[in-house]
Amino acid sequence: MSQNILSIDQGTTSTRAIIFNSEGKVLSKASKNLKQIYPRPGWVEQDPIEIINSVKFLSKEAIRKSKLDIEEITSIGIANQRETTIIWDKNSGKPVYNAIVWQDNRTSDLCIDLFQRGLSDDIKKITGLVVDPYFSSTKIRWILNNIPDGQKRAENDELLFGTVDSWIIWNFSSKKNHFIDATNASRTMLMNIHDLQWDDYLLKKFNIPINILPEIKPSIGDFGLTSKNIFPKEIPITGVAGDQSASLYGQACFEKGQIKCTYGTGAFLMINSGSRIISNNPGGLLRTLAYNYFSSKNYALEGSILSSGSTMSWLRDNLGIISNLDISSDISKSLDSLKELYFVPSFAGLGAPHWNTNAKAVISGMSFSTNSDHIIRAALESTAYQVKDIVESLDISIKRSITSIRVDGGQTSNDFLMQFQADILRIPVEVSENIESTALGVAFMSGIGSKIWNTENQLLSIYEHSKIYEPKMNKSEVEILYSGWLDAINKLNN
Asked: Quick one: CA dihedral 180, 184, 187, 192, positive or negative?
């Protein structure tokens, strides 16, 4: 009987379910876009019921399309949008509030309060994170503050918290298993990154009862069985990770110093820093858990870009200046260098290395000759510039220059963006053969957990790149363009 993995990739704008075989090949896939809810400026929510219903439906659809018997599904892997926060009633299973998405910045005032209380240094030391609305802890606090009797219900053991992986596992196990993987827990701003446990000191400071938190589990391991209410047989869940950790694993970045960048709703660059946390980190990057299993821990430095693909979607959906994002590459290649036109897409603030929650999106350097095509190109270029900001910070933190980068995600099909990225970084950009690296990564984890594969060396033979973009732009032009970008950022920050 063949061995196959159901890989669930629950992202910010869509849910995908993909069936991989034991050779890492895609047998089938199913996907569905998700509704984003914007109650107020800066607020971003989703319906947790829509999320779990999409996961259930697409999982069954992917299995149906694969034409496999259910007995041929060996295990399940789950990757998910990370910091997004869900709290639900323990007995009814109903969410008490919409999921507050990682992009949401409604908790800016709570973060300011943390700074004023002198907690930012403690939080950075304990969690590896900077104080920012991006992470889950202040979102939890906001929900408990804003639903009727929230704190009382939490203390009375009536509520449960989870990131999206926890929500899926709990529903798939018929309300039995309340787990979270360690990579997702590392993004809550409540987990001690050193011992991978909930931190009592931080729980007290946030006044969050530990009983609402899920049990922290290794990324590769036993997350329990699915209920027969979900599938005709019980299927073990053996791999779970936040989407960026899953992508790192799917890019076969198993060795210290290997780097990947994922271009999705946001863009996320991560370097495997090995078994030790990099203590010297002057570049404003996040120290986070890459993945772990058994007694093994791999850490990472990460730079998070909050608006990337979402910027292009905004041009399409809000401004209507482009009907199909696929044509943005050809439009951009038809234009000369923009020189003075810069689009800083800080719709949800600025992420690494700037960490400016209050920044607003701007387009600078416009003239009467500026048209919609110029804005489209500037939007694409903005992602490449933001990645360069992170790479520059990474050079400082690891005290050596980056020589190449592996990339994945939907925007890697954009030929203009990938070439401009290579040009502005002045290093080769290696595009993954499988743009679904996140789903592949968690399939790898699940396959290791279910003994389809025994070692990471077996996975190396599966990873492939499709194309390498070599830098073509001369150094002086890069310096001029990047200097203009930094000027635009400085004006925004000031």
From this structure: positive
